[in-house]
What we know:
There is one protein chain. The protein is an alpha/beta fold. It is built from three helices and six strands. The strands form two sheets. The protein has a four-stranded mixed β-sheet with strand order 1-2-4-6. Strands 3-5 form a two-stranded parallel sheet. Strand 1 and strand 2 form a beta hairpin. Helix 1 packs parallel to helix 2. It is globular, with a radius of gyration of 11 Å.
Amino acid sequence: MTVRLVGEVIHLEGTCPVEEAEALLALVQAGPDRPVDLAFCRHLHGAVLQVLLAFRPRIQGPSEDPFIRDWIIAALQQT
Length: 79
């Protein structure tokens, strides 16, 4: 499982496939103030990204992946 809840932080790790979008959606809906940690995320399926763009949770940790770090996180932090 690449989406998991540790305490009050949602962690996305490794390659997050389409199947994880529903799990992420449930966690974000259950705790809208929970931050999402992308430190160990290497790839986001478009459906997972759509959940993040729709809810715009607070993001923690710079990703190891340059595209996620430079483009995705920057887009999520825009208001």
